[in-house]
Design a protein that fits this description.
The structure is a single chain. The protein is of the alpha+beta class. About 20% of the residues lie in helices and about 30% in strands. The protein has a six-stranded mixed beta sheet with strand order 3-2-4-6-7-8, with helices on one face. The protein has a two-stranded antiparallel sheet with strand order 1-5. A hairpin with a 2-residue loop joins strand 6 and strand 7. Helix 1 packs parallel to helix 2 and helix 2 packs across helix 3. It is globular and about 50 Å long. The two termini are about 20 Å apart. The N terminus is likely disordered.
Amino acid sequence: MAITNYIAVLETMEGGSGVKTVKATYASSARAPDDLDTKLLRAMITKGIIEPISSVFVNLVNADFTAKQRGLRILEERIVLDGSPESPLDFIQVQIANVESKFSSTTSESGEIKVEGRVKDGIPHLTRVGSSEVVMAIGVDDQPSKEALKKIGEVLAIEEFVFLKL
């Protein structure tokens, strides 16, 4: 799954220290809900929430302990879909309550944010942040110039874009 994309989106949230519960929904075509090992996904969600607001380094080994130590509960729901076991994960949705975002359009009226990613043809894609569909996410090595950002904004096919500096 697009773990890096989720971390980038989660890092744009402010007030992460007030987050107490996160709900992660995994839609899978695995034969049974227990066939999908979500430990790595859960660790990356924990990393995206805790690292931006603390000096703690979160990894696969310490993620569950670090979340518990900070009072962060990660609830997981698995939805079994009809599909191919060769491509067992269809989408992941992460729902976080009581957050403030730098982008008000990403937060619902009840103060929660949902981030969703899907796998298409074996490639992970960030597909939704809040109520906004993500047409494309591009990672760059250096900050684009103001001129480059202006040219991107002038492309007719692009309805809206945001540059995130992490």
